[in-house]
Design a protein that fits this description.
This protein is α/β, with parallel strands linked by helices. The protein has one domain: Purple Acid Phosphatase, chain A, domain 2 (4-Layer Sandwich). It is about 20% helix and about 25% strand. The protein has five helices and 16 strands. Strands 5-4-3-14-15-16 form a six-stranded mixed β-sheet, covered by helices on one side. It has a six-stranded mixed β-sheet with strand order 6-7-8-9-11-10, covered by helices on one side. It has a two-stranded antiparallel sheet with strand order 1-2. α1 runs parallel beside α2. It starts with 20 loop residues before the first strand and ends in a 23-residue tail after the last strand.
Length: about 350
């Protein structure tokens, strides 16, 4: 019996412009066609597009990661994106790996800033991940953070009545702290009836992006609170990176790229610096293997009632088929002051 691909999720669609799709072998020979059917691309008029990347891990020296970022930003410019969003680990080890290497690791941010300046017409909105926090936490160096990235630890950007919410990791073991959690609640309450795109670095437990549980990730003590907020404020979409896993491993785990199994839309972004393969060990478990030549992210097309995520392989400047999917997101009305925090951690209208 011929090979049958079984890795599609209900949200998958064919890349825009597609008229037919098929399964090909490693030599590029088509094995058999697949009917477009429910995979038919969206044909309505989009509102705007933006770029979506994560896990650059730029170093102080100009290496492949610098080229990967430059390539990705050039691609987004060519596609008419209004800006690009980065979900953390902009640098490889942050400001300090040890106390004697301050200049080397501030050099990483200098290289990051240099590449951004090559694309003055494409704003890049980034956040801190765990790598920005090794040995000294980023919250002790917010002046330097603003100098190199142009932004604070957490902030918002609004475009076309859509809110983009950026939450930087405050230390190496916690995705969000109490101050950011309270700010997130207040931000979502104030913008409850528009779409809110929320960016963090590490994914919540048992969420998208952790194929076959290959990566131990610590979201921190407020994971349940964040999930509670996302479940209440229905117009939210959560974005995160951290595991670097490639789009194609959706065939191993349907939640690799997208899931709503926890009651909210959650999207994992592979690495623009070096995405990872997932391989099976002799004992049946799985592990991540870096592919330093790979570079992946999304070209995101925003529509009135849905959003299309076009997975992109930046080395080839082409679509990554299993990374192309549509999330239906019509605006839902959320009544004011209806959120209740059962943990009494968030100071809210009904808490």
């Amino acid at each position: 019996m011929s090979y049958q691909y079984k890795g599609f999720i209900p949200e998958n669609i064919a890349p825009k412009g597609s008229t037919k799709i098929g399964v090909y072998d490693e030599n590029g020979n088509r094995m058999f066609p697949i009917s477009l059917g429910t995979l038919t691309p969206v044909k309505k008029e989009k509102l705007f597009s933006f770029g979506l990347i994560s896990d650059l891990h730029v170093t102080a020296e100009k290496t492949a990661t610098s080229t990967h970022l430059d390539n990705a930003l050039s691609y987004f410019e060519e596609q008419g994106c209004v800006f690009c969003c980065h979900a953390g680990d902009m640098t490889n080890i942050g400001f300090w790996y040890n106390s004697t290497d301050t200049e080397i690791y501030t050099g990483q941010f200098e290289e990051y800033k240099h590449i951004c300046e090559l694309h003055p017409n494409l704003p890049l909105y980034g956040i801190c991940g765990n790598h920005e926090n090794y040995n000294k936490v980023i919250t002790e160096n917010l002046t330097e953070l603003h100098e190199y990235t142009g932004h604070s630890l957490y902030y918002t950007v609004k475009h076309n009545d859509e809110l983009f919410v950026f939450i930087g990791q405050p230390n190496s073991y916690q995705t969000i702290n109490l101050e950011e959690l309270q700010w997130l609640y207040e931000t979502l309450e104030a913008n409850r009836n528009i779409r809110c795109h929320i960016f963090v670095h590490v994914f919540p437990p048992s969420d998208s992006g952790n194929t076959k549980n290959v990566y131990t990730a610590y979201f921190g003590q407020y994971a349940d609170n964040v999930e509670s907020l996302l479940n209440h404020y229905k117009n939210t979409i959560l974005y995160h990176g951290h595991s670097h896993i490639k789009f194609k491993y959706q065939e191993l785990d349907k939640s690799t790229n997208y899931t709503d199994k926890n009651g909210f839309s959650s999207i994992h972004i592979p690495s623009v610096g070096a995405s990872h393969d997932v391989v099976q060990n002799e004992d049946g478990t799985y592990k991540r293997v870096p592919d330093n030549n790979s570079s992946m992210g999304y070209l995101v097309d925003v529509y009135e009632d849905c959003i299309v995520y076009n997975g992109i392989d930046f080395n080839k400047n082409e679509f990554a088929p299993t990374g192309v999917f549509k999330v239906d997101k019509p605006i839902q009305i959320v009544d004011a002051d209806t959120y209740t925090d059962n943990t009494n951690i968030v100071a809210c209208g009904k808490g």
